[in-house]
Amino acid sequence: MKIGELAALTGLSAHTIRYYERIGLIPYAVRNETGQRAYDRSVLEWIEFLGRLKTTGMPIQGMLRYAQLRAAGKATERERGELLAAHREAVRAQVAELNACLLVLDNKIEGYSHAMQRNENAHHDESAQRRPAGKPPRKRQAHAHGD
Length: 147
Hints:
Blueprint: H1 3-10, H2 14-23, E1 30-31, E2 37-38, H3 41-55, H4 60-72, H5 77-130
Antiparallel strand pairs: 1-2
């Protein structure tokens, strides 16, 4: 596939794809007879994996290290696994921190919800106290406009 197609499928710009290629994050594409880059489907899957690493906060240096290990082949499988396991622990710590933050937000939102309910109840009670007992609230009369 051409770089434009890869860009459309991944959501990355062509410039970013060329940059990733230049720094060694993705393998160099073969060139077709007109000199255009031609990518195979495996690059799409690799970019999707890199996107997951990026989303989970792995720095580009970590992604580069993983890419180098991957390019080195089977002999680096243990180190790649260790790198990903360490990153997974960092992600779990982030998730725990985010869950704690969500709990704080949930508590604040619940507090505001209770406060608004109390305000509505107080306003309703205040309105009821202003009306003489036993008298329903006065209805507004419609004005005739020369009908």
